[in-house]
Amino acid sequence: MAERGNPVKKRIIFIVLAFAALAISGFLIVRLISERSEPQIPNPEPIFNINADDVSRIVIADGNTGRRVQVEDRDEIANIVDDVNSMQYVGKKALSEIRLGWFLWLDLYDNSGNTITSFRPQGPGILEVDGEWWYTLEIPSPFYNDFHARYFD
Fold first, then answer.
1. Is the domain of 23 the same as that of 63?
2. CA dist., res. 128 & res. 122, Å (int)
3. d(CA 20, CA 97)
4. Count of domains in the chain?
5. Quick one: 56 and 112 in the same domain?
6. By C-alpha distance, which of 109, 40, 37, 21 is closest to 72?
7. 107 against 96, higher pLDDT
8. CA 96, chain centre distance (Å)
9. Same structural domain, 96 and 133
10. 79 compared with 39, residue with greater pLDDT
11. How far is the CA of 88 from the CAs of 13, 18, 116, in angstroms?
12. What was the pLDDT predicted at 100?
């Protein structure tokens, strides 16, 4: 009579394969739902409409180091607000994404010290604004390159 092999080894292989199949299926289902929930880009609209004169200061935090800088120069505030106002959204994200960190965090304050808005660019095409996730057409490069060179390097 032929030997059938080690039954414990077969069970372990079966469990590993079943777990792998479940993990791959779960990933594919989430990916499919995510792709179907991505908005079309028929009419992008601005996310922000902030008047630079209403902003007294901007706090920029570096997510890599935790360092913060305050911008109070009127010309710099106007330039940053122009960049912020140039961002356009194409829709809210249906599924929030798991993020382990963030690159930059910007808080814009009015003359009374109240927060006008708080947001963090999360990568190409993704922006978190006041706790909501948005698809964007483009996040201006200052949020990735110029701010670090100007304020943190």
1. no
2. 7
3. 22
4. 2
5. yes
6. 109
7. 107
8. 9
9. yes
10. 79
11. 50, 44, 18
12. 46
List all residues 6 or more positions away from 93 whose beta carbon is below 8 Å from its beta carbon: 37, 126, 133, 134, 135
Residue 147 above 70 pLDDT? no
- Phi, psi (degrees; rounded to nearest 5) at 35: -65, -35
Q: What confidence score (pLDDT) does residue 73 get?
A: 94
The residue segments making up the domain with residue 126 are 45-152
Instruction: For 15-37, write each residue's pLDDT tens digit.
Output: 999 988 898 888 888 776 665 55
- Shared domain for 33 and 49, answered yes or no, is no
Give the up-direction half-sphere exposure of residue 38: CA atoms within 13 A in the CB hemisphere. Answer: 11
Residues 146 and 91 occupy one common structural domain = yes
The residues, any chain, with a CB within 8 Å of residue 34's CB and separated by 6 or more, are 94, 95
pTM above 0.70, yes or no: no
**Same domain (yes/no): 63, 26:** no
Amino acid present at 31: R
Decide which of 33 and 94 is more confident: 33
Domain co-membership, 73 together with 127: yes
The CATH number of whichever domain residue 69 belongs to comes to 2.60.40.4250
The answer, yes or no, to whether residue 72 has pLDDT greater than 70, is: yes
